Amino acid sequence: MTSTDNKKPRIVIIGCGFGGLEAARALSNADVDITLVDKTNHHLFQPLLYQVATAGLSAPAIAAPVRHLFRKQSNVTTLLGEVDSIDTEGRKVMLAEGHALPYDHLIVAAGATHSYFGRDDWAPHAPGLKTLQDAFEIRRRILVAFEAAEKEADPALRAAWLTFVVIGGGPTGVEMAGTLAEIARHTLPGEFRRIDPASARILLLEGGSRVLQAMPEDLSQRAKEQLEKLGVEVHLDSRVVAIDAATVEVQQGAGGAAKPLTLNSRCVIWAAGVAASPLGRQLAQTTNATTDRVGRIAVDADLTLPGHPEISVIGDLAAARSFAPGREPQAVPGVSPAAKQMGRTAAANILRRLAGKSSEAFRYRDYGNLATIGRNAAVVDLAALAGHFKFSGYFAWLFWLFAHIYFLIGFRNRLVVLIDWASAYWSKQRYARVVSDISARAPL
User: What secondary structure does DSSP assign to 40-60, as a single string?
Assistant: First the structure.
């Protein structure tokens, strides 16, 4: 549906993550007016966010200003603002400060946030990793923990400061735990006089029976072995039941054979669960759409809302399915390649509707999964190749490294990351270890 009075169709895109960015780019040659609104002024390459949190990279290396990205795309207007609600009857996006953005077509790519499974009181003690601010806070807590241990005379309290607990054995948790082990074993030794950083305990807690559950079982086992080789203590079938400022309570054992475990730790990192943006539930209530248990909106085959063909929902906010010829519809994983493909499909379907054609069903092309464990260690599963070509170790690490550099936004970012990684590899140092404010210390 187009706007009236011979005006160009107005397209509003909420969110400049992978899905929103790709949708806007796919409309670069269209005769439309695009308004892209995001609550931050940058696009974030989230797969490398843990590198900022662990002082391996600086923030500008993985983030690019939205205005700069679209400076040459004249049909895009970028706005910094937070969406408060969506008026589906009046076809307006309402911003928190009161501005209204009218639309003819809407693409909602608001992303996801942390999920503490109903225990939001854990959040102050176990920050998650979704934004640059999250990364800065986690980096501060990690570095301050070593500093606090250096000052602590009590052996038990010192051990608590040097115990790092990562909750969740998905890609973020695995990468975070492996990198923490590298920091303790390779980066910090020799810099302290009263403690041995290499004595730090790094624990990875996973509620399931294996880490990296999206990977084939043999690669999950290989990842676990590589983590343990780095010095990470991997605890499977371990469900967190309580977190406070000084301890983590864990219930261990599958099938109800639980064994209590109390971990004394002053630095806990949450990588266990995600939930769709709260905007999703508000939109679902307005349109009578259904949501899944994490708040993702069930969409039609073409990624639009039932009864609202003018609204597309993509990325982590969509409970979408892939419709491949000759196959049953498959659930789409919440990964960046899926978000990019959804963005392109949503944009293409808008153009098809503007041309009077019917929209097409979304088809997700799974090219595989990869995760890095640490120095010279990674696992790769290339689903696009026959038989799921799988490998691990040094060559998998090189593949992971160059794949991430390739998909980074901007030549400068690629060059900076390549130089920083090369320097870190040969020197074993991390130079982004700057903490500007130690007054806001981790809970004591």
Answer: SSEEE-GGGHHHHHTTSS-GG
* Angle (CA) 383 388 391, round 5°: 105
Exposure on the CB side of residue 263, measured as CA atoms within 13 A:
30
Tell me which residue has tokens 């589906």.
88
320-329 pLDDT, tens digit per residue, is 999 988 889 9
Exposure string over 9-22, b if 16+ CB within 10 A, otherwise e: bbbbbbbbbbbbbb
| Cα maximum dimension of the chain | 75
- 432: confidence class by pLDDT, cuts 50, 70, 90: low
What span, in angstroms and rounded, lies between the C-alpha atoms of 92 and 79?
A: 15
Neighbouring residues of 91: CB distance < 8 A, sequence distance ≥ 6: 102, 103, 104, 106, 310
| Closest C-alpha among 292, 243, 293 to residue 268 | 243
Task: Report, as residue numbers or ranges, the catalytic residues.
Answer: 175
Q: What is the share, in percent, of the chain residues with pLDDT greater than 70? A: 93
Instruction: Tell me the H-state helices in 54-170.
Output: 66-69, 132-151, 155-161
Q: What is the pLDDT of residue 387?
A: 62
Taking the C-alpha atoms of residue 64 and residue 402, their distance in angstroms, rounded to an integer, is 19
Q: What tens digit of pLDDT does each residue of 97-120 get?
A: 899 999 999 999 999 998 999 999
Return the beta strands (E) in 256-376 as ranges: 259-264, 267-270, 274-276, 297-298, 304-305, 308-313, 318-319, 321-322, 330-331, 369-374
Kindly report the number of other CB atoms within 10 A of residue 133's CB atom.
11
| 154 contacts: CB under 8 Å, gap ≥ 6 | none
- Cα–Cα distance between 6 and 380 in angstroms, integer? 51
Q: How many CB atoms lie within 10 A of CB 319?
A: 22
- Do residues 228 and 245 touch, judged by C-beta distance below 8 A? no
Q: Is the pLDDT of residue 10 over 70?
A: yes
Asked whether residue 411 carries a pLDDT value surpassing 70, the answer given is: no
Tokens at residue 213, please?
A: 């559950």
pTM of the model: 0.91
Q: What are the structural domains, with CATH classification, of the chain?
A: 10-39+81-113+275-354 (3.50.50.60), 120-272+369-427 (3.50.50.100)
Q: Is the pLDDT of residue 439 over 60?
A: no
CB 362 within 8 A of CB 323: yes
